[in-house]
Specification:
This protein has about 725 residues and is an alpha+beta fold. Helix content is about 25%, strand content about 25%. It has 16 helices and 29 strands. Bound molecules: dioxothiomolybdenum(VI) ion (MOS). This is Molybdopterin-dependent oxidoreductase.
Length: about 725
C-alpha cells in the first residue's frame, strides 16, 4: 500500500443521505406488517402482580398483548448487561422496564392499546441517586505499580482533588427499533446494531432456537457509539411476537422509554492525588474511581485507569475503583466510555499540578513524553502526542499565554481563557473475513464485517478499494452489518477502521494478483471490468482474512463460529502497547454578567495512525469535540428519587449540543502509519476524538476566571 495521503473524497453515502434515500432498519417496508408498543413499568422496583389486558384488547386494531407468560423463561447465566434479562419478566428492576408488548394493525392502535393495559404491582424500596445508595462500595482490583505512597511522601509539589462526572444518556437521531420477520422457519431481524453477530447469538439463546436460524441485517445505523452494543430489552420480545403471530412485527421505541431502557454513562466520582519532584516530574499518582452501577450490572469500574496509568509514564501509580449499586438499567458504554470521564478528571488534575508548579500546561505535558507503557513495561508503538501538542499549540497561537488566570480578555471585554487537554485511547483490532467480486458487467461487490453507524465505515472501505483497484466506483456495493453475507463482529472500541480496512487492502491486493495471473503478461486495455469482459470472464471472486498482531487461525475460527476475538484491549498486544493520541486546545469566553460560557474556537490534533478517509475522520473529531463540550456544559441525566428512573427523559430537557453551539473546530492529523498495530497502519479515531476535550474546556474556564470547577456539567450558577 502506498504511503501517499488518501484523497479527501466525499462520503460514498453522502448523496443518498442528504436526499433521504438511506434506509434505516425501521424504514424497510413489509406487507402485512404489525406495529408494536411497549408498556413501561411505572414503579421504581418491585413485582408485577397482575396485568389486565381486557381494555387493551378492546381497542380496535389491537391483535395481541404479550405479557411475561408469552415469552420463554430467561435462560440461566449472564445475558448482556443485567438486570434483568432482555425478556418480559415479572420482576421489575427499574422504572420504565417493559412489562408487556401490545401488537396492533396500526401504530396508533398499538399506542392506544399500550395505554389501556392496567398493571398492578407490589412495590419495593429502591435507590436511584448516587448519594442514596443503600449498600456499601464493592471494590474492584485496579492497575497498581511502583510505590505511589512512598513517592507521594517524597514529592515536593502535590495536589489532591475530587472530580465528578454525572450520568449521561445516548441520544442519537435514530430511535432504537426492531423489525422481526419469520419466514420459512427462519427469523430475520432488521435492527440498527453495532453487533449484528452478538444480536443473532443472544436472540437465538433467548428464543431457544439454533443461532443458524437467525439472520441480522443492520446496514445503516443512525448513531452508535455504544448504545447499540448489546441486545436491547425489546428485541427478543418483538421477535417472539412475530413468531406467535406469524407476521412481521415492528417496534420503534419512543425516546422517553429509551432513556430508561438503554445503556448510559454512569455517575462517577474521581479522587486524584498527584505528586511532582523538585524537577517538576510527576512521580506519583493515586486515582480512585467510584461509579454507579445497577444491582447486577457488570460494567467494570477498573477500566477508568486505562488512560491515566499509561499516558505520562508515571512510574508510581496506585489505582483503586469500586461500584455503588442502584436500581437502574445497567450503565454501559457511551463514546470513550472510560476515557472521557477519566480524562476530564486526570487532565484537570494535571492542569492543577502544572499551575501549582508555575509551569505552562503544554510545556508540562511535553516534558512527560515516554516510550514505555508504565503499567506493563511494554514498548509504546508510534506515540505522537508531543507532535499533537506542539502542532496544536502553534495552530492555536498558544505562545505568550499568561500563566495567571483572569488576565486574558476577548476583544469585547469578555473574560477569556485558554485550556489544553490530552488523551489516549486503545488501538484495538478484530479479525475479519472479506469476499470481493469484480464483474465484467461493471459491478464490484465487497462483503465483510463492520457496521456503518454514521462514522463513515463504508467510505473508509471504499477509499482503499478505489485506491487499490481500477474499478467503477459508482457501481461499488459494500455489504456490512449483515450476518448473511460475512461473519460479523461488533463495531465498537474504535477498532472499526483498524479491523475493516486491513482486510480490504488485502482483498484489493489479492484481486489485483488474481487478474494479473489471468492476464498472464498480456496487455489488455481498460479497467478491471473491461479487462474481464475482453477475457470473457464474467467475474473474479476472492476471499481473504486478516488477524490482529499476536493472533492465529483459532481467532478466525472464533469469528466464523460467532464469537468475539478482539485484540489490543487497552492497547495491549503480546509485544507492545498501541494507542491513539490527541491534544485539544479550547478558547472559552465567560460573559461577565450572566457567566454564560461560550466556546468560539477549538483546535484538535490527533494521532490515529494512518488516516484512511480524511473527510469522515475530521468529522469524527468535530463530532467528538461537540459531544465533549456538550458533556462539559449541558448534558446530565437527572434521576427521580420519588418514582425511580430518569426525570429529564426527553431532548427538551436533556440538552444535547449541536454544531451551532460551538464556533470553529479546527481538526488536523499527524497521519503517520503504525505498522505494528496492523498492516494498514490504522489506530482508530472514533473515541479518542472526544478524550480530554472536556478537561480542556474546564481548564480554560479556570484560566478565564480563576475558578476550578471539578463537576460536570459546568453551569452558569457554578460561576456566580
Ligand atoms: Mo463504543 S462506546 O465502544 O461503541
Amino acid at each position: 500500500m502506498s504511503r501517499q495521503p488518501f484523497p479527501d473524497l466525499a462520503r460514498i453515502d453522502a448523496f443518498d443521505k442528504v436526499q433521504g434515500k438511506t434506509k434505516y432498519s425501521s424504514d424497510v417496508p413489509f406487507p402485512d406488517l404489525l406495529h408494536a408498543m411497549t408498556v413501561p413499568a411505572t414503579i421504581g422496583k418491585g413485582m408485577v402482580t397482575s396485568i389486565d389486558v381486557e381494555h387493551a384488547l378492546a381497542v380496535p386494531g389491537v391483535v395481541r398483548v404479550l405479557t411475561p407468560h408469552d415469552t420463554p423463561p430467561p435462560p440461566p447465566g449472564p445475558q448482556g448487561s443485567p438486570p434483568p434479562p432482555p425478556m418480559l419478566v415479572h420482576a421489575i428492576a427499574y422504572r420504565g422496564q417493559p412489562v408487556a408488548l401490545v401488537v396492533a394493525e396500526t401504530l396508533e392502535a398499538a399506542i392506544e392499546g399500550a395505554e389501556a393495559v392496567r398493571v398492578s404491582y407490589a412495590l419495593e424500596p429502591f435507590a436511584v441517586r448516587f448519594e442514596d445508595a443503600d449498600a456499601g462500595r464493592e471494590d474492584t482490583e485496579s492497575p497498581t505499580f511502583g510505590d505511589a505512597d512512598a513517592a507521594f511522601a517524597t514529592a515536593t509539589t502535590r495536589i489532591e482533588a475530587i472530580y465528578t462526572t454525572t450520568a449521561n444518556h445516548h441520544n442519537p437521531m435514530e430511535l432504537l427499533s426492531t423489525t422481526a420477520v419469520w419466514a420459512g422457519g427462519r427469523l430475520t431481524i432488521y435492527e440498527g446494531t453495532q453487533g449484528s453477530n452478538g444480536l443473532k447469538n443472544t436472540v437465538a439463546q433467548l428464543l431457544q432456537i439454533d443461532r443458524s436460524m437467525v439472520d441480522v441485517i443492520s446496514p445503516q445505523i443512525g448513531g452508535g457509539f455504544g448504545q447499540r452494543g448489546e441486545v436491547p430489552r425489546h428485541t427478543a420480545v418483538v421477535a417472539q411476537a412475530a413468531r406467535l403471530l406469524r407476521r412481521p412485527v415492528k417496534l420503534v421505541m419512543p425516546r422517553n422509554q429509551i432513556f430508561h431502557n438503554s445503556r448510559f454513562r454512569p455517575h462517577v466520582q474521581h479522587a486524584i492525588k498527584l505528586g511532582a519532584d523538585a524537577n517538576g516530574k510527576m512521580i506519583s499518582a493515586h486515582y480512585d474511581c467510584l461509579q454507579q452501577n445497577s444491582r447486577r450490572g457488570r460494567y467494570r469500574s477498573d477500566w477508568y485507569h486505562a488512560g491515566p496509568c499509561k499516558v505520562y509514564g508515571i512510574e508510581n501509580y496506585r489505582g483503586t475503583s469500586g461500584d455503588l449499586r442502584l436500581d437502574t438499567h445497567g450503565p454501559a458504554q457511551m463514546r470513550a466510555p472510560y476515557e472521557h470521564p477519566s480524562a476530564f478528571a486526570f487532565e484537570s488534575a494535571v492542569d492543577e499540578l502544572a499551575f501549582a508548579l508555575g509551569r505552562d500546561p503544554v510545556e508540562f505535558r511535553l516534558a512527560h513524553d515516554t516510550k514505555i507503557d508504565a503499567s506493563t513495561g511494554k514498548r509504546l508503538t508510534s506515540r505522537h502526542l508531543n507532535e499533537c501538542l506542539t502542532r496544536g499549540a502553534e495552530q492555536f497561537g498558544w505562545t505568550g499565554r499568561p500563566v495567571q488566570p483572569g488576565t486574558l480578555k476577548a476583544a469585547d471585554g469578555t473574560m477569556a481563557g485558554w485550556g489544553v487537554g490530552a488523551g489516549v485511547y486503545q488501538a484495538a483490532m478484530h479479525p475479519a473475513i472479506a469476499t470481493l467480486r469484480v464483474s465484467a458487467n461493471g459491478v464490484t461487490r465487497y462483503a465483510s464485517a463492520g457496521h456503518e453507524m454514521g462514522q463513515g465505515m463504508r467510505t473508509a472501505i471504499a477509499q482503499v478499494l478505489i485506491a487499490g483497484l481500477r474499478i467503477d466506483p459508482a457501481r461499488l456495493t459494500i455489504l456490512i452489518g449483515d450476518t448473511t453475507v460475512a461473519p460479523q463482529h461488533s463495531t465498537a472500541g474504535s477498532w472499526g477502521t483498524a479491523s475493516s480496512v486491513p482486510v480490504a487492502v488485502a482483498a484489493a491486493e489479492k484481486m489485483t494478483a488474481a487478474l494479473a495471473e489471468l492476464l498472464d503478461g498480456r496487455k489488455v486495455a481498460g479497467n478491471m471490468h473491461e479487462q474481464l469482459a475482453r477475457l470473457r470472464r464474467p467475474f473474479i471472486e476472492i476471499e481473504v482474512s486478516m488477524v490482529a498482531p499476536g493472533q492465529g487461525p483459532e481467532h478466525l475460527e472464533r469469528l466464523k463460529t460467532g464469537g468475539m476475538a478482539i485484540a489490543g484491549l487497552h492497547g495491549t498486544y503480546p509485544d507492545f502497547t498501541a494507542l491513539s493520541y490527541i491534544a485539544h486546545f479550547v478558547e472559552v469566553h465567560v460573559e461577565p454578567h450572566t457567566r454564560r460560557i461560550r466556546v468560539p474556537r477549538v483546535v484538535s490534533v490527533a494521532d490515529c495512525g494512518r488516516v484512511i478517509s480524511p473527510r469522515t475522520a475530521r468529522s469524527q473529531v468535530q463530532g467528538g469535540v461537540v459531544w465533549a463540550l456538550g458533556a462539559a456544559l449541558r448534558e446530565i441525566s437527572e434521576t427521580d428519587p420519588r418514582y425511580g428512573g430518569w426525570l429529564n427523559a426527553d431532548i427538551a430537557e436533556y440538552h444535547v449540543s449541536v454544531n451551532a453551539d460551538i464556533g470553529k473546530i479546527d481538526v488536523s492529523f499527524i497521519d503517520e502509519p503504525d505498522f505494528d498495530a496492523n498492516s494498514a497502519g490504522v489506530k482508530g479515531i472514533g473515541e479518542i476524538a472526544m478524550v480530554g476535550a472536556a478537561a480542556a474546556l474546564a481548564n480554560g474556564v479556570f484560566h478565564a476566571t480563576g475558578r476550578r470547577l471539578r463537576t460536570l456539567p459546568i453551569r452558569v450558577e457554578h460561576l456566580i
